[in-house]
């Protein structure tokens, strides 16, 4: 892997790690479900007019959109809205990798090696430690919701695998067409149209401008630029060489949340984070890598 590509991979990991800070800023202005709908709507509109159809079966596009898009971001945004620490969210969401391996074994009959199983058990041990610590602070529900977000991401991964797109980036962009309507419906039911309207009519306030900046970052840097560079790296390098760089995302997320938001992780959290990252690395990679670029696309 060329030095240029290594630097680009680190750059993408930084973009994706800071994505969680941007989500935090976005949720300061917009209700979580409505924020998710806006996030995808801003990508979906230009995609329909500018990006070629990915030439996949519609059911796989819908499965990818509902899993990776609607499910993941509905659970994640609500979890962060309810108090899930930003840095911790970037870590717990990494559970999508072992979830993908397990679902692949159950639904697609993919073989799970001893190495993968050991990695999954390590990751589960780390997640259990985090959940135990959060439950002591009455914050278990956000952790569970973030784990459900990771599970939804894994379900989306399986749809992406079955789709077998010629251009994964095109499918990722077209996937954005699926979530807006379901998320708008969920927002209307659980948040009420008044909350969404208020968030739009107060965009001129300081909080509103920060929220818009956060949303713009998620769409432009986190999705379009980050996904574009990552997909390019995956095309010209072995997946097993590029994929480990994604494990820098929670490192960046935890570090940025410490310096920007003042979130101070406990010693147990840091130890559990190391265990989770090690487990994800061990459990999601094989000698002949099964990790694909679409499985490691950003939030």
From TrEMBL:
<keyword id="KW-1133">Transmembrane helix</keyword>
<feature type="transmembrane region" description="Helical">
    <location>
        <begin position="88"/>
        <end position="108"/>
    </location>
</feature>
<feature type="transmembrane region" description="Helical">
    <location>
        <begin position="267"/>
        <end position="285"/>
    </location>
</feature>
<feature type="transmembrane region" description="Helical">
    <location>
        <begin position="171"/>
        <end position="190"/>
    </location>
</feature>
<feature type="transmembrane region" description="Helical">
    <location>
        <begin position="33"/>
        <end position="53"/>
    </location>
</feature>
<feature type="transmembrane region" description="Helical">
    <location>
        <begin position="117"/>
        <end position="133"/>
    </location>
</feature>
<feature type="transmembrane region" description="Helical">
    <location>
        <begin position="60"/>
        <end position="82"/>
    </location>
</feature>
<dbReference type="Pfam" id="PF00892">
    <property type="entry name" value="EamA"/>
</dbReference>
<feature type="transmembrane region" description="Helical">
    <location>
        <begin position="242"/>
        <end position="261"/>
    </location>
</feature>
<comment type="similarity">
    <text>Belongs to the EamA transporter family.</text>
</comment>
<feature type="transmembrane region" description="Helical">
    <location>
        <begin position="139"/>
        <end position="159"/>
    </location>
</feature>
<feature type="transmembrane region" description="Helical">
    <location>
        <begin position="210"/>
        <end position="230"/>
    </location>
</feature>
<dbReference type="InterPro" id="IPR000620">
    <property type="entry name" value="EamA_dom"/>
</dbReference>
<protein>
    <submittedName>
        <fullName>EamA family transporter</fullName>
    </submittedName>
</protein>
<keyword id="KW-0812">Transmembrane</keyword>
<feature type="transmembrane region" description="Helical">
    <location>
        <begin position="7"/>
        <end position="27"/>
    </location>
</feature>
<keyword id="KW-0472">Membrane</keyword>
<feature type="domain" description="EamA">
    <location>
        <begin position="143"/>
        <end position="282"/>
    </location>
</feature>
<dbReference type="InterPro" id="IPR037185">
    <property type="entry name" value="EmrE-like"/>
</dbReference>
<feature type="domain" description="EamA">
    <location>
        <begin position="7"/>
        <end position="130"/>
    </location>
</feature>
<dbReference type="InterPro" id="IPR050638">
    <property type="entry name" value="AA-Vitamin_Transporters"/>
</dbReference>
